[in-house]
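quick one before i forget lol
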Amino acid sequence: MNTLRLSLEAKGIEIVDSDPEWVMLVAEVEDNAMLYDALREIKTGAIEVEDLPLQSKIPWIGKYGECVPQALVRKQYIDRFIDIEEMQRELVVKM
């Protein structure tokens, strides 16, 4: 979901914060076609991690996270939480 959220934000789709107990994304769009077009592009397009709007300061991961340089924290975050290939494989777009 994290990769999908970032991919949609990169396409200009605004994601609204929702209840953290639910596994869902709530998007605010002018019309449904805009969302479907973005999802189709995400499913079939070439997406690079550099295209995603990652926050500039990634929160520390692990017990000694504050000792790790921010560049390595960012790399660790990408390795753990961003999987573009899996997202594209699992994403199903129907209209």
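fyi Helices lie at 2-10, 32-44, 70-81, 84-90.
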